[in-house]
Design brief:
Arc Repressor Mutant, subunit A; globular
Length: about 375
């Protein structure tokens, strides 16, 4: 109350997402999940019609994504999803590892603890990320994983660094999604020790939290090196990760074929493709796995029955999170169906040398 000597009551901060931000967020997660694949071209008109909005917010959203380097602007052709190569991923990965290592050293030197007021939200994000990873639904996984690491980055107390780490994570998913979509069943393949990290943070165990994050980064490097067929030794920060985690040396991507250990530490799938299923669907669902001395199959790719169960868990998780048809998180201010739709397949290009009379200039 005024005049009681307690001073003015601070107003609560209200965050409102504009239509432009909602469109940009939906497109960002489409690219992270690999539904908008690299090389895909689209115009402002297509995006506006897809989401049922005017051209202005659609154009602003695309321009924002282009300014962030997540879309490439092409004159008279609209916007194109960029293709990220292994060298791009190495730069992204190295930046992320060096930043997190630097902040750990800062907390250790100053004997300071991160802001723990975010722990309740961090617990919820971690639980959702773990369930999504174990269900193996990539469309749900990308959003849950990103929101969890956004909460973790918020503990650093530096908003600009947190935003930069989030930008790196978006690009990392854009690189990884095409390879992950080639895995027949993702259940149990991706990292799922989010709750272990939250427990270490809650116990003020900074060294333990740093070790878990390094184990996560090392797991990611092994997984993607195996899927992309690249040498693990090309990761420049590999020595830093192995020193922190106590890993006694690396044997290349062949080490990625193991199964999960009893401690919960997972092993990524091998670079070799999974064994081809039997010709008949009935036999593939009922036959037992063969014993072989060769490389083990990708975790989770052991039968149609398990794949169906993973799909059911993914759909159930999608209903809990309130996701639309395309599993894109729905803005609260818009009705279902506007977001979450897939882009239509691109129309065949007109022959060279014959301009399209129906094409609008500047689109």
């Amino acid at each position: 109350m005024p005049g009681d000597g307690a001073g003015p009551t601070p107003r609560p901060v209200i965050h409102r997402n504009s239509l432009r931000e909602q469109i940009a967020g939906a497109l960002r997660e489409e690219m992270m999940a690999g539904r908008l694949e690299a090389g895909r071209n689209f115009t402002v008109k297509e995006i506006a019609e897809l989401y049922g909005v005017s051209a202005t917010p659609a154009r602003e959203a695309l321009v924002d994504l282009g300014a962030q380097g997540l879309l490439r602007t092409e004159h008279h052709r609209g916007f194109t999803v960029p293709e990220l190569c292994w060298d791009d991923f190495l730069e992204i990965f190295e930046s992320r590892v060096l930043l997190t290592d630097s902040f750990h050293r800062q907390f250790t030197t100053r004997r300071a603890l991160p802001d723990l007021s975010r722990l309740p939200s961090l617990h919820r994000r971690a639980d959702a990320a773990v369930r999504a990873a174990r269900a193996g639904n990539l469309d749900v996984m990308v959003g849950c994983d990103r929101r969890f690491w956004q909460e973790v980055a918020g503990l650093l107390g530096n908003r600009r660094i947190a935003d930069y780490l989030d930008w790196l994570r978006v690009q990392s998913w854009m690189f990884a999604a095409p390879y992950l979509r080639e895995v027949s069943t993702l259940a149990g393949v991706c990292w799922d020790r989010h709750l272990d990290l939250v427990g270490a943070i809650e116990a003020h165990d900074l060294a333990g939290a740093h070790r878990i994050i390094c184990e996560y980064n090392l797991y990611t490097a092994r997984l993607l090196a195996g899927l992309a067929g690249q040498p693990l030794e090309s990761v420049t920060v590999l020595g830093l990760l192995t020193e922190t985690t106590g890993t006694p040396g690396m044997a290349g991507t062949a080490e990625a074929t193991g199964t999960a250990e009893a401690t919960g530490a997972q092993q990524p799938p091998a670079a070799e493709p999974a064994p081809e299923p039997s010709p008949g669907p009935a036999t593939s669902a009922t036959s037992e796995p063969e014993t072989s001395s060769g490389p083990e199959p990708v975790p989770g790719a052991t039968g149609a029955g398990r794949a169906r169960r993973g799909d059911e868990v993914g759909r159930e998780l999608g209903r809990e999170l309130g996701l639309g048809l395309g599993l894109v998180p729905q803005p609260r201010s818009l009705s279902y169906g506007r977001f979450g739709r897939r882009l239509p397949e691109p129309a065949p290009e007109a022959p060279r040398g014959r301009p399209d009379p129906h094409a609008a200039p500047g689109r």
